[in-house]
Design goal:
The complex is a heterotrimer. Chain A has eight helices and 20 strands. Chain B contains 13 helices and no strands. Classes of the chains: A alpha+beta, B mainly alpha, C mainly alpha.
């Protein structure tokens, strides 16, 4: 059993605190993704788990062992670095077997496990090459191979795909997922890319400025974002967020449009709120994703249309701001064209303006 | 204390400890001794004078001596002329070699040639070349029919100074040429092309793109050079040893003459301090320029 | 750059001429000395000058090693051994000590780092002549004058700062990820250094070593004051043996110059590539 447990973990550089008391439980064999903008403390947190950064306060345990004082080599973890950190002076085979050699495993065992890993990742043709003679995707695979040969308790990934081009990134994403299904291990994966987080994670941890903003399954964080930050971070194109005031139980936007609020929204009359809705919920009549049971209609002028093939992103003005809508099953739309948009009321998000926290149950 | 040495914070200090110890023992302590003796009337032949405190008398006498000021002025002039000439010629050479596409590696190897020579060898080499009786220079001028009487290169005061600067420039231009060539080869292509698209002529491209990019390399070369500019002592020592009649006397030759030949160690150490400050001043000046240029470069990348 | 600019033929010839003249000036003086080392003394002193040697000879070399009856032999062989022992020992120690220092600067953050680094560099700026004065006084009292150990210590102190500077640059070019990956793969920090960082810095360290060796091998100002006899006199100091008040043995000196230059020549060729990279980019990138 190798669950990972972070309790009130703090990281300070000198006087500056960059990670503020994080609590996190990662279950055995769970795939957890830490996601957030750069500088949010996700990599620092991962490096504390790895033992590459000292833990200023709090405890980290792997299994039932507190590892605070253990050096990286005693934690039985492996890590894939953003730069891959392949040893340039060793062949692929030597790179893969290095950890086992250090652990003084018998030669036969090393060969066996290196070959297994090579087989899983399809590395056989390159075994005697140096990293300099590999493509980006191949290097990435070697880095993963080096991590799996050692049968670690925990796999750590530090933005492993950010040096690859978009197409390769998509392929490797699937490969990592397949790898996890095949080699069941606890995984902590750091990325700034919310698509990676959504597609890979069992649970996502969204971080900002050294705090955890929300922890949940991809569906939870997408459908029930805890605050405006998570709402804006997860989903692409991002959620539209409009300032509004509660009047007569409805949200009144700055341009006077009134939107009925969901029944479970805990608002008070006159409260300043942020009304959120995803582009999917704002579509011209007859072009929406969900058959809207409850909706309001507004006529808006399309300012820009971005045809993407299966859908077209439309830009229009609402509540004094530019909002994006998604037109499914699209037809050509000219800028300046007036369209009747429907706003799906069942998928509205309501946040408190001051705290940014969600007001829905 | 023992707890500190076992903590991880101590590691860098422990790693540096041997280096610090050596520098303390062989550089810092001697410098303190030298500072002490510069305030005594220490004479090599009379050991007891090591403790004869004379205050600032050595400095007063040094500063009042015209020999010293001639040597000092000549040294500053020598450094300034040599460094600037080396920079200009080195830059020119680097630009020329950079234009050559075929056999550039060989050319770079040839440029390394003078760097392998120890200064004392360079001195000997030019002492031989400029020798009035058997030297290559006079032999060549004779056989080309340009002169009838041998030219006394190392005896005539003006020509002797010229010969010394020539030797110094020969020895060190390569340092500039090689470092600047490395800089030119690392020069990114895009800004050059952008400038050309923007309508710059070749001189403007050089002036506004190439030269600013080369500045850190220039300062590196200058820093390295000012670090060991005093190596010129070896060269002068063998070529003229300060002669004729003190006309090529530099601070460094004057210092050894005072210390070892006239045994006036106190005086010599006082001059030594002047020369140390001079070296440090040149080095720090260029090093600071380098750090500035480095931050400036950082923004461009 | 050169590929893009279109030069007119006369410009191209002008560039080639410039390069040719510069290279000639760089090569001829040294080549002339080397040639002289193999010429007969009569030819060297001949008037009018003899440009093309009639006969090359090894006599000058035999002469300086005392193998000829006609010429008084100098202890050049002993000087050579002294130079070798002093240079090699001081280099080995300076590299070991300097590498530790360079690694500390490249990999750790600590109080007084900047000041310490500056201190090392400043210690290197002290002119050899100026340092020789107090060292002469101290070494005399410690009995280190005219000993190999005295010279080894001095050359260590000259080479350590430069080695620190170079190795700092070399180690910083090695991504810190590699050492971290090795530690996660089960290495101690010590193992990670020897198995990953050291092998990668080896080429750089080799050139730093050669640089240190050459500095010691070529040094004159300190050696000329701190050595006296065959017990510790080095080659550059020995070169001055050939100059008397009014006469100079050009042939003998040239032969000795060749002996000094050969090791330098060979070693410089070996490392030239690394050396330039180390000097420039270590410094420019900071």
């Amino acid at each position: 059993m190798a669950n990972v447990s972070l309790k009130k973990v703090v990281k300070r550089y000198g006087r500056e605190e960059v990670v503020h008391g994080i609590d996190l439980e990662v279950a055995h064999n769970e795939f957890v993704v830490l996601v957030g903008p750069s500088g949010c403390g996700k990599s620092t947190t991962l490096r504390m788990v790895a033992g590459l950064e000292e833990i200023s306060d709090g405890t980290i345990s792997i299994g039932d062992r507190v590892v605070n004082a253990l050096p990286p080599r005693s934690r039985n973890i492996s890590m894939v670095f953003q730069s891959y950190a392949l040893y340039p002076h060793m062949t692929v085979r030597e790179n893969l077997g290095f950890g086992l050699k250090i652990a003084k495993e018998p030669e036969a065992e090393i060969t066996k496990r290196v070959n297994e890993a090579a087989d899983i990742l399809g590395l056989e043709p390159y075994m005697d090459r140096l990293p300099a003679h590999l493509s980006g995707g191949q290097r990435q695979r070697v880095a993963m191979g080096r991590a799996i040969v050692r049968n670690p308790d925990v796999f750590l990934f530090d933005e492993p795909l950010s040096n690859l081009d978009a197409k390769l990134r998509g392929q490797m994403r699937v490969e990592i997922k397949r790898l996890h299904q095949r080699v069941k291990t606890t995984v902590i994966y750091v990325t700034h890319d919310q698509v990676e987080a959504m597609t890979l994670a069992d649970r996502i941890v969204i971080m900002r400025d050294g705090y955890v903003e929300q922890v949940g399954t991809p569906t939870q964080v997408f459908e029930k974002p805890a605050n405006t930050f998570v709402a804006g971070f997860i989903g692409s194109p991002p959620m539209n967020q409009l300032d509004a005031i509660v009047a007569n139980g409805k949200a009144r936007l700055s341009d006077g449009v009134e939107v009925p609020l969901p029944a479970d929204a805990r608002v008070s009359e006159g409260q300043q709120i942020v009304l959120g809705f995803r582009p999917e919920s704002f579509a011209p009549k007859g072009h929406s994703l969900h058959g809207a049971d409850r909706s309001v209609s507004v006529a808006r002028t399309v300012m820009i249309a971005e045809p993407l093939g299966t859908e077209t992103i439309l830009f229009a003005e609402l509540g004094g701001k530019e909002v994006q809508g998604k037109m499914l099953d699209p037809r050509p739309v000219q800028p300046g064209e007036m369209l009747d948009f429907t706003l799906d009321l069942t998928r509205l998000h309501v946040f408190d303006k001051a705290s940014g926290k969600t007001l829905r149950a | 204390m023992t707890r500190f040495f076992r903590s991880p914070q101590a590691t860098p200090y422990l790693l540096l400890l041997p280096a610090i110890a050596v520098i303390l023992a062989v550089v810092l302590v001697p410098l303190l001794v030298s500072l002490w003796t510069s305030f005594t009337g220490y004479n090599l032949t009379k050991p007891a004078t090591l403790f004869q405190w004379v205050g600032l008398r050595n400095y007063q006498r040094v500063l009042a001596s015209s020999d010293f000021w001639w040597a000092f002025g000549r040294t500053v002039l020598f450094i300034t002329i040599a460094l600037n000439l080396e920079l200009l010629l080195g830059l020119g050479l680097a630009l020329l070699v950079n234009k050559i596409t075929w056999g550039q590696r060989t050319l770079r190897t040839i440029m390394m040639f003078p760097m392998m020579f120890s200064p004392i060898l360079v001195g000997f080499q030019f002492k031989y070349l400029f020798n009035d009786a058997v030297g290559l220079v006079n032999n060549a001028l004779f056989d080309l029919g340009l002169i009838r009487e041998p030219i006394a290169w190392l005896v005539d005061p003006i020509l002797a100074n010229f010969a010394i600067i020539f030797a110094e420039v020969w020895m060190s231009t390569s340092v500039f040429a090689i470092l600047l060539l490395a800089g030119l080869m690392a020069l990114p292509k895009e800004p050059l092309e952008a400038a050309r698209v923007d309508g710059c002529n070749p001189w403007q491209v050089f002036r506004h793109i190439t030269l600013p990019f080369l500045m850190p390399f220039i300062y590196i070369a200058m820093t390295i050079r000012s670090l060991d500019v005093a190596r010129a002592y070896d060269m002068v020592r063998i070529m003229t040893n300060g002669g004729p009649a003190g006309r090529t006397e530099l601070l460094w030759t004057l210092m050894t003459r005072t210390g070892y030949q006239n045994s006036q160690m106190g005086m010599a150490n006082a001059m030594g301090y002047v020369s140390i400050i001079l070296s440090i001043a040149f080095t720090v000046f260029y090093y600071r320029k380098l750090t500035q240029a480095r931050t400036f470069m950082g923004g461009a990348q | 750059m050169s590929a893009m600019t279109i030069e007119k033929p006369w410009q191209r010839w002008l560039i080639r001429l410039g390069v040719f003249v510069s290279m000639t000036i760089l090569v001829v003086p040294g080549a002339w000395v080397v040639l002289t080392a193999f010429r007969q003394n009569i030819e060297i002193l001949a008037k009018p000058a003899v440009w093309i040697p009639q006969e090359l000879t090894l006599k000058n070399f035999q002469g300086i090693f005392g193998l000829l009856d006609t010429q008084q032999g100098l202890p050049v062989a002993q000087y050579f051994v002294n130079s070798l022992v002093i240079s090699v020992t001081s280099t080995v120690v300076a590299i070991a000590v300097g590498m530790m220092g360079g690694y500390a600067f490249a990999r750790y953050r600590f109080k007084g780092k900047g000041a310490l680094f500056l201190g090392f560099m400043l210690s290197r700026t002290v002119p050899g002549v100026a340092l020789s004065l107090p060292l002469f006084i101290l070494w005399a009292r410690l009995g280190l004058i005219d000993t190999s150990w005295g010279m080894i210590l001095v050359y260590m102190s000259i080479n350590i700062p430069f080695t620190i500077w170079l190795t700092d640059g070399f180690f910083r070019q090695i991504p810190i990820d590699l050492s971290e990956a090795a530690q996660i793969d089960g290495c101690t920090r010590w193992q990670a250094f020897w198995k990953v960082e050291f092998p990668l810095a080896r080429a750089g360290l080799a050139s730093a070593a050669i640089f240190a060796f050459l500095t010691s091998w070529n040094e004159y100002a300190l050696a000329s004051q701190l050595t006296r006899t065959t017990a510790s006199k080095t080659m550059p100091v020995g070169l001055m043996d050939f100059t008397a008040q009014f006469t100079v043995d050009w042939a003998g000196m040239s032969a000795m110059a060749v002996l000094i230059i050969i090791p330098a020549l060979v070693l410089t060729f070996i490392v030239q590539k690394h050396l330039i990279a180390g000097l420039t980019f270590g410094g420019v990138k900071g």
